[in-house]
Design brief:
The relative contact order is 0.10. α12 runs antiparallel to α13 and α25 runs antiparallel to α26. β3 and β4 form a beta hairpin. The chain is mainly alpha-helical. Helices cover 58% and strands 4% of the residues. A three-stranded mixed sheet has the order 5-7-6. A two-stranded antiparallel sheet has the order 1-2. The chain has 31 helices and seven strands. It folds into four domains: 152 residues, no CATH class; 107 residues, no CATH class; 202 residues, no CATH class; 111 residues, no CATH class.
Length: 662
């Protein structure tokens, strides 16, 4: 207790005034206030006497007033934050020196602290119930929508982290995001032992997204295996930080990633519109910047730990408060996929298709998708012609949405509520926080138009945006806006992404395509379960070694990724000792985000099963997305009739391989 007050006397006084029926509410409210009150906040007893509300009509009015306030407050803070990051997020040319400072500014960092100082946060804690994850899981299925909204209202104030700590955390995440957004490799300037260039002129790929997607595309290339092995070597250099710093986003240097030799690029090989870069053949490695950025995020997050007793580590906050799924349950779901006896059976099918033993790059085998064997150049030509600019993609949104399964009227309405921008990075979807503002779809559009990689990402981000529109504009309480956690919005985005080729007129649903979809979902869930385990283990390592240097963290990440690879992946893909699982950029700039990907695949599969039973897709998608931010199992039972589980995907994979019937 942080304030000196006779609690028993205060509670007795309030019961005498408001009635015996209010005793439980009074005891809970006073306890919740005292847990956060500080001496400088003033006279807590006077505050409680003045602000406790017992009359139902006044309590309803208080709830409605706060719900309205927080929609506007949150929404405008989202808009201010978007403006602060406008130039670092979007492809609008070279950045001014000031932009990194502007992007690091988080206008919302002071909001919760200010609301406590203004006593608004204490009004919430005095009158509405804080709940634990265990309570929400046990009682949530029987709660009314109003009870859920009250739980979310109070949950905003389950911590009181000083604004300067919140700001520091935002600053470090913004710095990491900018570092990642500018981490490009100019592929034409990769050379092999013969000095040969395997990739076309002008190809600039961001790590990790585009490197991974190019690796996938190379299965359709006659020289694809050579290209893939080179990309894997590039990834290895990035992870181990043995990549020469001079070659990052530099089209004026040639680099052999196998020998690490750096040479000046011949003038005729340099892209005509290549940006100005220092041209010095320096093979000095990148100085552990990747891990310095991650360590800075960890150190900033750690400063908040003492102020969040309900979840006293960033790990606990990610799982118990963010996902509302315990780390133990998430790990069990991921391990269930990783250890499935179906893995070697699916691997044998891939081997039979490739006609060779599997290698580490086959972690990203895309051949189960209908377009997996279609040359990337063919797809690039199609998407570049159709979408020369971000504006062209925006204009095509109504057609795309009708193709997904929305009515013409609904497709037009959704398109009118989404804005499309050309991204500096790989792409992302940014939600709106209030009705009257619009979610943003960001994807990379190169000078020749949107290539297939950018299109594939754009369709994925569109799934996020449609969910964001429905879960803001269609939810009954704006305090419930959104979905349970990031895995759910990823799942709904995967529903869109799985139809990207169909939307280009290159695939129609049939039994064969459904079988391929199942195997593809399983293989991706397997891969992403591995990267998630690495992400989780790295954060545990940092907490166990809080004084670690970037070099020590690098060595730990490499060791952890190698251990997970050797345990689950080497028996299938070979490559013992590769650190490949640590390549995902999310691990550096989105703290503990990666578990949402495999969870998203499991959730997406459950959703797809429901969509296959019901229809049309658009109406079912809307029904699910407008249910709002309740706990994962409550949302999933509403959506599909069953809690979150890996079993539907495993059963379907067994059937696809010729086992039990679905």
């Amino acid at each position: 207790m942080k304030a000196s007050v006779d609690v028993a006397a205060l509670e007795a006084e309030l019961v005498a005034k408001h009635g015996e029926a209010q005793r439980a509410r009074i005891a809970r409210g006073v306890s919740q206030v005292l847990a956060q009150w500080r001496p400088e906040d003033g006279d807590v007893a006077a505050f409680v006497r003045e602000q406790f509300v017992s009359e139902p009509r006044l309590l309803d009015a208080t709830f409605a007033r706060l719900e309205r306030l927080f929609e506007q407050l949150d929404g405008h803070m989202v808009e201010l934050g978007r403006e602060a990051q406008w130039y670092t997020d979007l492809d609008l040319g070279p950045l001014l020196p000031v932009e990194s400072l502007v992007a690091a500014y988080d206008p919302s960092a002071h909001v919760t602290d200010d609301l406590f100082r203004a006593k608004v946060g204490f009004v919430v804690l005095l009158n509405f119930p804080l709940t634990t994850l265990a309570e929400r899981e046990a009682r949530g299925p029987t709660w009314t929508r109003r009870q859920w909204a009250e739980a979310r209202l109070a949950g905003r104030f389950n911590r009181r982290v000083p604004a300067e700590i919140e700001q520091e955390s935002s600053r470090e995440v913004a710095a990491a995001n900018l570092y990642i957004a500018e981490y490009n490799v100019w592929m034409h300037h990769l050379v092999d032992a013969r000095g040969e260039r395997l990739f076309p002129k002008g190809m600039r790929l961001i790590s990790h997204w585009n490197l991974r997607d190019e690796l996938k595309a190379d299965y359709a290339d006659p020289r694809g295996l050579e290209k893939q092995r080179m990309i894997v070597q590039v990834m290895d250099r990035i992870i181990t930080q043995t990549i020469p710093a001079a070659v990052i986003d530099n089209p004026r240097l040639d680099w052999n990633p196998f020998t690490n030799a750096v040479t000046m690029a011949p003038a005729e090989s340099v892209e005509a519109d290549a940006p100005a870069r220092e041209a010095k053949a320096d093979a000095t490695r990148e100085p552990d910047t990747r891990y310095a950025r991650l360590l800075a995020i960890f150190q900033a997050a750690r400063k908040a730990d003492p102020y969040v007793p309900v979840a006293p580590t960033r790990i606990a906050r990610a799982f118990d408060l963010g996902r509302e799924l315990s780390e133990e349950r998430v790990k069990a779901l991921l391990t269930q996929v990783l250890e499935s006896p179906l893995v070697p059976r699916v691997a044998r099918e891939i081997e039979s298709r490739l006609g060779r033993k599997l290698e580490p790059q086959d972690l990203w085998y895309p051949g189960f998708r209908p377009g997996g064997k279609r040359p990337e150049a063919e797809l690039d030509a199609l998407t570049r012609k159709r979408y020369p600019t971000a504006e062209a993609f925006a204009k095509d949104l109504p057609r795309i949405l009708r193709g997904i399964g929305f009515t013409g009227e609904k497709a037009d309405w959704l398109a009118a509520h989404i804005r499309v921008d050309a991204s500096r990075g790989a792409g992302h979807a940014q939600p709106a926080g209030r009705r009257g503002d619009f979610p943003r779809l960001r994807t990379r559009v190169e000078k020749g138009g949107m290539d297939y990689k950018g299109y594939n990402i754009a369709v994925h981000e569109l799934g996020h945006n449609v969910e964001q529109v429905f879960s803001l504009y269609g939810v009954d309480h704006t305090l419930l806006a959104g979905v349970p956690n990031n895995a759910f919005t990823e799942a709904l985005a995967f529903v869109f992404q799985a139809r990207d080729l169909e939307l280009l007129g290159l695939g129609k649903p049939d039994a064969t395509r459904e079988r391929e979809r199942v195997l593809s979902e399983f293989w991706q869930a397997w891969e992403r379960s591995g990267i998630a385990l690495v992400d989780m283990a790295v954060w545990h390592w940092m907490y166990a070694h809080p004084e670690a240097t970037p070099a020590e963290l690098r060595e730990a990440v490499v060791a952890i990724s190698r251990d997970v690879w050797n345990r689950y992946f080497a028996p299938v893909l070979g490559g013992e000792g590769t650190p490949l699982l640590a390549v995902y950029s999310h691990m550096i700039s989105y703290p503990l985000y990666l578990p949402d990907y495999p969870l998203g695949h499991l959730i997406a599969f459950q959703i797809e099963e429901q969509l296959s039973r019901k229809g049309p897709l658009g109406a079912e998608f809307e029904r699910m997305a407008t249910f709002g931010s309740v706990t994962p199992d409550v949302w999933m039972v509403h959506a599909t009739g069953a809690p979150v589980s890996a079993e539907p995907l495993l059963r379907a994979t067994e059937a696809a391989l010729g086992g039990a019937k679905r």
